[in-house]
Amino acid sequence: MKNRLKVLRAERDLTQAQLSAALAVSRQTVNAIETGKFDPSLPLAFRISRLFELPIEEIFQDGDPL
Amino acid sequence: MKNRLKVLRAERDLTQAQLSAALAVSRQTVNAIETGKFDPSLPLAFRISRLFELPIEEIFQDGDPL
DNA sequence: TCTATATGTAAACTAAGCTTTACACTTTGA
DNA sequence: TCAAAGTGTAAAGCTTAGTTTACATATAGA
């Protein structure tokens, strides 16, 4: 699953540390999501969506064939 | 996190077994999500969203204060 | 009545999300 | 030049998502 987190964060001029604080997760979690190590949980995806004021579908793109 | 899965499934007259097959998960997973035992992963939420042709936000409602 | 279908739940397990601590590397600025 | 800030990554551990197997219960239909 791809995501636009890094770009959205850059647009708002936030560091990973600032974003992680705003999302109440560790910096490593933000980094791991940005670098594609894993996908956020659904609750975290909602928090990201609210923070950036964008629907989940505009932040995360599912390349799932199913 | 609340969801409208049970209602959406009923509207389409699907059994938990049929829905789980369509989503490629076990019936227990569908049941657990419907009964609020846990939230789906983001990839699974996308599959549910596509199957019901509804945005994730219209299926899952986040009651997260954060 | 007896059988099949649908649902709920439980235990034991694996896999994924997320944490803390820690370290390496690069870039920026005093 | 050297310290601070930003980023990437790794290990170990905990929590949550999802699995298989299995059983209990309810309802519908022949």
Automatic annotation (TrEMBL), chains A, B:
It comes from Pontibacter saemangeumensis. This is Helix-turn-helix transcriptional regulator. PROSITE patterns: HTH_CROC1. SUPFAM superfamilies: lambda repressor-like DNA-binding domains (SSF47413). Keywords: DNA-binding. InterPro entries: Cro/C1-type_HTH, Lambda_DNA-bd_dom_sf. Pfam families: HTH_3. Residues 5-59 form the HTH cro/C1-type domain. Coiled coil: none annotated. It comes from the Bacteria.
